[in-house]
Amino acid sequence: xxxxxxxxxxxxxxxxxxxxxxxxxxxxxxxxxxxxxxxxxxxxxxxxxxxxxxxxxxxxxxxxxxxxxxxxxxxxxxxxxxxxxxxxxxxxxxxxxxxxxxxxxxxxxxxxxxxxxxxxxxxxxxxxxxxxxxxxxxxxxxxxxxxxxxxxxxxxxxxxxxxxxxxxxxxxxxxxxxxxxxxxxxxxxxxxxxxxxxxxxxxxxxxxxxxxxxxxxxxxxxxxxxxxxxxxxxxxxxxxxxxxxxxxxxxxxxxxxxxxxxxxxxxxxxxxxxxxxxxxxxxxxxxxxxxxxxxxxxxxxxxxxxxxxxxxxxxxxxxxxxxxxxxxxxxxxxxxxxxxxxxxxxxxxxxxxxxxxxxxxxxxxxxxxxxxxxxxxxxxxxxxxxxxxxxxxxxxxxxxxxxxxxxxxxxxxxxxxxxxxxxxxxxxxxxxxxxxxxxxxxxxxxxxxxxxxxxxxxxxxxxxxxxxxxxxxxxxxxxxxxxxxxxxxxxxxxxxxxxxxxxxxxxxxxxxxxxxxxxxxxxxxxxxxxxxxxxxxxxxxxxxxxxxxxxxxxxxxxxxxxxxxxxxxxxxxxxxxxxxxxxxxxxxxxxxxxxxxxxxxxxxxxxxxxxxxxxxxxxxxxxxxxxxxxxxxxxxxxxxxxxxxxxxxxxxxxxxxxxxxxxxxxxxxxxxxxxxxxxxxxxxxxxxxxxxxxxxxxxxxxxxxxxxxxxxxxxxxxxxxxxxxxxxxxxxxxxxxxxxxxxxxxxxxxxxxxxxxxxxxxxxxxxxxxxxxxxxxxxxxxxxxxxxxxxxxxxxxxxxxxxxxxxxxxxxxxxxxxxxxxxxxxxxxxxxxxxxxx
Length: 838
Hints:
Pfam families: Tail_P2_I. InterPro entries: Tail_protein_I, Unchr_phage_tail-like, WD40/YVTN_repeat-like_dom_sf. This protein is an alpha+beta fold and 838 residues long. The longest helix has 24 residues, at 518-541. The protein is flat and about 145 Å long. Residues 625-671, 736-752 and 783-792 have low confidence and may be disordered.
């Protein structure tokens, strides 16, 4: 609400825009949070040849692994060879007969090379986990495998082009290390392998009779797309739903017979067409639309492209083959946009509802970027009832224009917005633009809401309907970040001038076409001053925002902190600096206390203390630690807090109660100050208590980053009194549970971390990190492509000093100098007598 009591209604979220058209000419850019022209090229037609496309469908696709090694079919030897890590190539798979045909191969996310051999699927393990490296997947009748797509969740998707079917291969052969014989008295499951390799044909997936599936691809979210052809029509693409059914299709405008498809991102696919073009058409898929045009970015193909299909890969971007290698598909920074697009706030989002049937809509504020040659038109309509926008007659929509291109217009009565020098009409607000203001190009635009060509031009009605049209030149796009409509109109004429100047024309004459009345003109003229004065009044009325820590401009934070005598760290995030200034009074009040320390840490870490990621403990409480920790390993010599402690499995209530091992009570009783003790015992207790006095331990969850540990230490130095020592220690979640039980705070239990790759200087032995590289196609990457690395161990060396003895004299032979290597030990010595000369 502004200084005159006028409220505003905002439209800025994607759910509030109903984008019109199929394909739509507009899109909502999520990262910029803006409505803009779609990044696409319309009326673009790629020339492709059906016969040539059929020939290229017969080319066996190549595949890549995580290292960039490439495997492809050597047609001369009918074998699969790999290359990439070193010069030359290595044969990794051969067929039994030259008549056997390989139609596809794909490196899976599970370390298996899947091969389509004469319509059957062969699993070729690149880690040597099975007794047989090649395992054939049991097939099904009337299913001829042809194309594959690796699924990040494991297995592959299989396309049968001939029978128009789709299947999924799941399961793995039993690991060879788990295959051993058991005695009859050992209970075993009915099936040793509960998840063997299996092909499942998806019965619900069907295509129309006139469509021919030719390609399949799976993205990083395990979403599967299938490309189909229709004779002399645009190609179609389908998505496989979570219920294993086909979605509605999207018509790919501009292409008839693409022969290869891969995902470029989670939402966009790239195609290859058999024609003279030297680019790859890319389409962003919105299955709420029935058709799509290629995106505006240009994905060029190099001159050495050999016209083969895309390579199968485990990540983005896709690769296309050349005569000697493969190249990644990247786009050029030369965008194309649709030249026009439209959107409404109906029916997805209800029209703006003022709740007042007498509402006079006042002014539109638009935060936007409008490049040269671009413009925005907004048509407004007001109704007393919640009417569908499509039912409103065209003559009741009133146009308002934004942009320099509309300053020289034929119709002079259509209002054109002006650029405002302030970032937002909201007092001291920075606005929503992600870029700097630029006169007449970027920033805040405003226009008085009017009914052009009517005698009385004020727009009255409870509901406000919007119809937005963006226009561009194909190289740039306007962007709408936020639209705000104000009402009900605060009229200076009605509020401050005599009745003589007020409107005297009413319905139905007010709705008639014609020149505006004198009173209406006066009201609109005076509104020019109202617009300026209201902004000034709002900024004066909101001046308190310039001294509030949460709303003051970021550059003024040190100034505000200086007024409080508080020094803030510029390296902290802006929100943290604001919270420190907000809590400065409490920090001064509790400075040097445990409460002040916790408050400082809570602010600096943005809630880690209340969230249980940090536990602050006064060390004197540690005299009872051994009786209050639940489930901790008290014999852990490496933990500085429990070194040499006593093990227990007790249940605990409070700080001092313990129930448990009777043999430990004598020791644990030393920590109870209420028991009668002798002089020597009292001296030992006093020494223990003295060593724990004036000390604070800050336990931090082990998942906290190193830079945050430094921040915690910095805050501790600032908030802890000079006579108190402190230490910051990293601890596991189980340890934090025990420590937190002493101080009565909620504990932090992290979700189980997924398996990750071990990293030098960061990983700990036994802490969920694993040393195992991705499977490789090139076996020359020792230990990576063919099982776990096996180090060649040096054989043990037997050694004994020469000894001589007379006849019948005892002799002692000592093999102590024998050696074993690689961390192994000699546990047994075998002595053999050899004759002379042996």
